[in-house]
Design brief:
By secondary structure, the protein is mainly β. A hairpin with a 2-residue loop joins strand 2 and strand 3. The relative contact order is 0.27.
């Protein structure tokens, strides 16, 4: 499946050979509950280290406003789901699925993450 920032949340199939892993930063440089933006080719990705040590990555583009600001959003939770709230319009998104939880609306693209030798890597679909 290809990655897109359109209205439907997208993920990359980790089992297939069509994923390129791109190192974006050392894990030690991420702060819990604080987002960082990474530019991978022409794709802006928001990377979050959650309080439980899990790293998540979503599109940095706010799907409603079209601005690249999600890395500056507010990390929180809904029940047991880690979330990010848009800093502009306050829509809340599930960080694992990209689904908009606050209203019917477009979701965020979600990217797979792995940590290898202390480096955070984001999975990008091959072109």
């Amino acid at each position: 499946m290809s990655i897109s920032n359109d209205v439907a949340p997208r993920t990359v199939d980790l089992r297939g050979p069509d994923v390129d892993w791109v190192a974006v930063c050392p894990l030690a440089e991420l702060e819990p509950s604080w987002g960082e933006a990474a530019l991978i080719d022409d794709t802006q990705v928001a990377v979050f280290l959650l309080p439980d040590g899990v790293v998540r990555a979503v599109s940095n583009e706010d799907p409603v406003a079209g601005s690249f600001v999600m890395s500056r959003g507010i990390v929180g939770s809904r029940g047991d789901r880690a979330t990010i709230a848009s800093p502009l319009n306050k829509q809340v998104y599930d960080l694992e699925t990209g689904r908009c939880l606050s209203a019917d609306g477009p979701g965020l693209a979600v990217f797979p993450v792995q940590t290898v030798s202390g480096l955070v890597e984001i999975g990008m679909a091959r072109a």
